[in-house]
Amino acid sequence: MTDRIRDFLRARRDMGQDEGPVMVLDLDVVRDNFTAFARALPDTRVFYAVKANPAPEVLRLLAEMGSCFDTASVVEVEMALASGATADRISFGNTIKKERCIGRALKLGVRLFAVDCEAEVEKISRAADAAGIEAGEVQVFCRILCDGAGAEWPLSRKFGCVPEMAVDVLEHACRQGLHAYGVSFHVGSQQGNIEAWDGALASASTIFRECADRGIALSMVNLGGGFPTKYLKAVPGVESYGDAIFRALTKHFGNQLPETIIEPGRGMVGNAGMIEAEVILVSKKSDAEDEIRWVYLDIGKFGGLAETMDESIRYAIRTEHDEDRMSPCVLAGPTCDSADVLYEKVPYPLPVSLSIGDKVLIEGAGAYTTTYAAVAFNGFPPLQQYVI
Amino acid sequence: MTDRIRDFLRARRDMGQDEGPVMVLDLDVVRDNFTAFARALPDTRVFYAVKANPAPEVLRLLAEMGSCFDTASVVEVEMALASGATADRISFGNTIKKERCIGRALKLGVRLFAVDCEAEVEKISRAADAAGIEAGEVQVFCRILCDGAGAEWPLSRKFGCVPEMAVDVLEHACRQGLHAYGVSFHVGSQQGNIEAWDGALASASTIFRECADRGIALSMVNLGGGFPTKYLKAVPGVESYGDAIFRALTKHFGNQLPETIIEPGRGMVGNAGMIEAEVILVSKKSDAEDEIRWVYLDIGKFGGLAETMDESIRYAIRTEHDEDRMSPCVLAGPTCDSADVLYEKVPYPLPVSLSIGDKVLIEGAGAYTTTYAAVAFNGFPPLQQYVI
């Protein structure tokens, strides 16, 4: 909680405009986070993962500070451009792209693309050809699979290929005349282990050597995201990640360090945002002595808290009664969907005095909330955001 | 697939407007479904569950046909009214309501409310008082827990209380001067067992008796939803449900049958809608002989197929190559979110010849798709819908 957010919420309530849940994001925190990343990894270019929070104010601030942008779609490319970033600061980081979307991104000036298979390389090659763009100007990097151990929102095998295949994919890009630029990986979102980059960097250096053996000089390693934000548990500072990554880079690449980029999303905006929600109901399912309380909020899984899926992300929730005795409760959202339950397998401790109408503050909600919200589920509007 | 949907999709493609996934809903199917429900349960009032698909065209058709409406929020109440239904045909079926939302619904004329605890009864009582509405005009029914066995999208314990507690809740309503009207339950969405209503009706009849012992004459049983739509497996026809429910009613209530209402959502619109999507990528993660294919569509968990959560709802997917040999694949959506995978634990058989750019048809997609879609996740727009 920052003073600015506190003041904003107070003013909103005083004006009687506090109907419905709201997310408030403090740009000062984003500014501090960017500065911390730039200091912790001074030789690494920062590509902010736009999907984490594409608010125009956030993108504008980061563009002014010199950030680059990792985008997932043409719409995100356009948002990054609209924020003032030039196309050479934009990466199309989604490995799953329609060929016509690649074409549009190329026309918008984007020259940096992620791939994880030969078919995607061919789409880029054809799209460049169709757009009349010299293939050699288009840089591609190949994403490799990574086990994601230690991450709270671990990645599936959805993105990336095995390292051995990456060599073939990059060679294929080379044969198509594209610039085989490097390797990317993602150690898993909300990664608590600062050493998690070591194994993937070992794979990356092997790919660099094998490509060199085939006459292909790779030059870039995309270290991905994974930098955590603080939810309930303390997380290591970004400087610890910087130190550990630099050690791993030196270990695996010696004195031939590659160019590097990082793609923080959650780590850039997570702790900058806070959701204020309201308790709609507190009830029990029976009169049994040991029956657990159910607490229902006016925000749930479909209103912005999608990352509570499988109870993965456990937000810190503050109330005005936190000095009181706590007792565990099941926490649920407001919709008529019975899957809209936030925490049940591991009940959430909340004050026994928490009542209907009380406000609660959900911390660390600046990333992966507003855009995840359902467009109109049960008639509820999507989560409102104020950037201050 | 209906001829009308086929023609619509063909025309759309011919006009070159088939960019992005689309859901097309055929009102003729909705009309047939309503007629089937009305025939299968002739003495039961149908309250369409608006949340399943609140398209104005759907609501208008059902309003004209005489349907009532089960709503989850004030916005849904307003949509039902806008469709031409009078307020006496609207139930506020969400057990989790803000007091000010109850007040708004009362002002809009709604007099039928779900509850599952005493606190909710008190909100209704206060809201009626504040609105200057005679408490005795306001009907409340108490939802009870139900085990949901046999359902493909089983319900958690989120809604309802144990039957013993329901008697107290209804008595509490009575003491507040409200009209204690009856009992509701939900046997679980996509319920394949036509006998699933039996156990809950036994509980309901016990509550009727116990309330009668306390001088409270209940008169209504809300049989909820749960009526399935056809996905991959065949489901029993609605007339089988009607017969089984009538048998169970007679068994538990003898010749003193209560008024009944049903709340079909999926059963009313599920099979009326079909999604057309596009294959963005087909790839493998390694060159290993037994490596599974990944097929990526331009729609996924955050674009409207939220009910693939935990691989619960298994849609029937048609392609233009269905005569070909099939092989299992992992099916995933287009976003940069690794949780956006539809079927992986149980891979989905698709033709080996399925290629990038091919269209696929996802059947039974008329319910719980459009409004679940994320507002802008990864920059992708929400699922478009055409009602024909």
Automatic annotation (TrEMBL), chains A, B:
Enzyme class: lyase
GO CC annotation, single: cytoplasm
One Pfam family, short name: Orn_Arg_deC_N
Keyword Ligase listed: no
Active site: 336 (proton donor)
Co-factor requirement: pyridoxal 5'-phosphate
Keywords associated with the record: Lyase, Pyridoxal phosphate
Enzyme nomenclature, EC number: 4.1.1.17
PROSITE patterns the UniProt entry points to: ODR_DC_2_1 (PS00878)
Domain of life: Bacteria
Record field: catalytic activity: L-ornithine + H(+) = putrescine + CO2
UniProt-recorded name of the protein: ornithine decarboxylase
Gene giving rise to this polypeptide: ldc
